[in-house]
Amino acid sequence: GPGAADGFLINGSVNNGAASPFAQAAAFGNNRRGRRSLYNGGLAIVAGNSAFDARPFTFAGQPALKPNYSDLHVIGTFGGPLRFSRMLRNGPTVFAAFQHADDHNATTQPGVMPTALERQGDFSQSRNAFGQAIQIVDPTTGKPFAGNVIPGSRISPQAAALVGYYPQPNFATGSAFNFQAPLITGTRQDLLTTRVTQPINNRNQLIGLFAYQRTATDQTTLFGFQDASAVSGVDTSLAWTHRINQFFSMRLRYQFTQVTTSATPYFASRTNVSSDAGISGNNQDPANWGPPSLTFSSVMGLTDALPNFNRNRTNGGGAEAYWSHGRHNLTFGGDLRRHAIDILSQQNPRGAFTFTGAATSSDLADFLLGIPSTSSIAFGNADKYLRAFSSDAYVTDDWRFSPTLTMQIGARWEYETPPTELFGRLVNLDVTSGFSAVSPVLAGGAGPLTGQHYSDALLQPDRLGIQPRLGLAWRPVPGSSLVVRAGYGIYRNTSVYQPIVTLLAQQPPLSKAFTIANSAANPLTLANGFTAPALATTTTGNTFAVDPDLRVGESQNWQALIQRDLPGSLTITATYLGTKGTHLLQEFLPNTYPAGATNPCPTCPSGFVYLASNGSSSRHAGQFQLRRRLRNGLAASVQYTLAKATDNATAFAGVNLSGSAIAQDWRNLDAEQASSNFDQRHQVNAQFQYTTGIGVGGGALLDGIKGRLFKGWTVTGQLTTGSGLPITPVFLSPVAGTGVTGSLRPSLTGASLSAPSGYYLNPAAYAAPASGQWGNAGRNSIAGPAPFNFGMGVARTFQWTERLSLDWRIDATNVLNRETYTGVNTIIGGPQFGLPNLANTPRKLQSTMRLRF
């Protein structure tokens, strides 16, 4: 009967499925018996509402508000041949898909805001990270203020104006935080994808693709600023395939892509915060209105997004050929692309101040007195037009050496020209040996110190992009399920140049840019901190330079695995993966020294970040996977990975002019050797799928109402967990001789590194470095919060007719609503040091209904 056939089908047959009487109904594509329609499609709606989601996670035991929002996705697909009885009888086959998505993500973020007393200069109730009273020192007399209160007449009018943008604390001080707010990020996405396939004859075929996507995001910050951003992209291509004979074919292709990004800050054309506060020297264009960036260790830093409008266009074409000859299947080809990158943005137009407490022993008190520790700014030359070429050539041989051994042998060559600026507006530094002297050099010019001629890109091209590839699959025992696979390849970082050249376009003399520390020679205030400083003869106004012989980073990857089937529909796989990175990016500050030490070279230039490509990395990983193939309705897999990744490439994650991307000691870059930012020592991934009513044991023989209710339900689950990613403790102080902050690390006190309950860093284990010494706390020396995410879904298909069906599904992310943390405060000195400050997304439900025909 029908029940028996159902059970036999699901449990499988030793016969080929296509020849089995229990296989699917005879069909090829859409050519179904008794049906004239050649078209298929679908309509789906995915909906969610905050009423069904969990409340955002909270900090410090304070209640969290549950925001109101609704999520909605609308998805439509259609495909089939364009055929009209008289007008178009052999038209192309088309496929089109459209998706509109409106999503929201709600989180709660904690913070520390200045108290009502502190805003008035009263620090009598303030405490440091160890709960001790803070003693505010008058920088003019060197003595404490009476009663720990700054007189109102001494409070900077600029600080009084800026502190008004800080929200008032919204719960009583009793923990490290005194403020929290729900943050909602809204994302709207529209996506259109089309594909047209037109056979010309038996030997020729055209395939055209067009895709458009736009994503708009509205994000609210902890200060209540709502920033908007958008990304839109067009991707279109046309390919012609020509088959010469059954052994040889070729394909020509053309592709055009364009990606446009834009960002509009909350204050743009709304309020000129700097001007109203009496701060001069920064960019006053309406697009850049807003507050300067303020950085503290004891309270939240004031910041807002920066405006930008960037457009990246690529035109490219290529050719590929396929030749089958005996046991060899050769593929070879190449591509050439032209890139046009138009940028309308500035690196730091509103400027930034850092407060470390150097003047009064309290960073917040320094701010109220208007005395920053450092000042930085970079603007001018806002429009940049970068142009570059990239190309590749490749050959691969899929060699069926024997029935038990297959090899893939090939090589790929890639070459990217360093981008040039259409009007030559790039500036690097001409550097003498040992960084004893530097001088700005323009694109295409000669170095005034070394006489070296610089190209229009200021960087020498790296043409050594040959990348061999080798892979093999071997069945050592014929007829056995045991399979051995191995591979080796070299891969290049093909996107290294653009962020570098963008920084070279924001340098003096074409732009106003400097990073400087407060000193007797250059006393900084909030009012004048962005005016051009009187630089010493050894200080350059340029903030960034790059080695003109920079190499493109590459990684050697190799792997080997053994796989075998086991009883019970199980498959076991053991894998080893290795990676060796070379020519990776390192950033350092030449001619710097620890605070309190004697400057070893008073006549040497300093104050700029230098980028070189001498870094290296390694990663070794072992994976163990156990997979159960679909049997009696159950399929599952679990994979465990043990890995270790290390590097000394401080700028591995990206070029930056502050923070941990810069090495602490420029003369000892090997001291930066540490766990990589992505070093997750342990990781577990598991998933399962169970469908009811499959197999005799699963109830396949059920019929009637019970069978219709029970059969066809599918339950899925995905689990990801593991150890935390490494984090670095930071000592917020400018590097001697520069205004750069964030690259210094504290020293260990000898106290246990084991963190107290609720902390990830033990505040008692760290202290400011001793005078004349670098901090000895290691880079990436602490394991951060461990991730955990478990999601589930339930689905069923309702078959109405042979061609019409309805899919229903409900998915839950973080179904257990388990709170984990994604961020930790790593700046020592504040009461939040070592505490988590960002949480994962709480449980969220979405329901999907899809109609297919």
Q: Describe it for me?
A:
- By secondary structure, this protein is mostly beta strands.
- The protein has seven helices and 39 strands.
- The strands form seven sheets. It has a 22-stranded antiparallel beta barrel. It has a four-stranded mixed sheet with strand order 10-13-14-22, with no helix packed on it.
- A hairpin with an 8-residue loop joins β20 and β21.
- Residues 1-34 have low confidence and may be disordered.
Helix share, percent: under 10%
Largest sheet: 22 strands, antiparallel, barrel
Straight-line N-to-C gap: 28 Å
Outline the low-pLDDT stretches. Answer: 1-34
Shape: globular
Number of strands: 39
What's the Cα radius of gyration?
A: 31 Å
Task: Break the fold down into its secondary structure elements and pairings.
Elements: H1 2-11, E1 27-28, E2 31-32, E3 40-49, E4 70-81, E5 93-111, H2 116-119, H3 157-162, E6 179-199, E7 204-220, E8 226-243, E9 248-264, H4 273-277, E10 293-295, E11 308-325, E12 328-345, E13 348-354, H5 363-368, E14 374-379, E15 383-402, E16 405-416, E17 420-421, E18 427-431, E19 438-442, E20 466-474, E21 483-492, H6 497-504, E22 512-517, E23 544-546, E24 554-566, E25 570-588, E26 609-631, E27 634-647, E28 674-675, E29 682-691, H7 704-710, E30 713-722, E31 726-727, E32 747-748, E33 766-767, E34 782-783, E35 788-799, E36 805-813, E37 821-824, E38 836-839, E39 844-852
Parallel strand pairs: 10-13, 23-26
Antiparallel strand pairs: 1-2, 3-4, 3-39, 4-5, 5-6, 6-7, 7-8, 8-9, 9-11, 11-12, 12-15, 13-14, 14-22, 15-16, 15-17, 16-20, 18-19, 20-21, 21-24, 24-25, 25-26, 26-27, 27-28, 27-29, 29-30, 30-35, 31-34, 32-33, 35-36, 36-39, 37-38
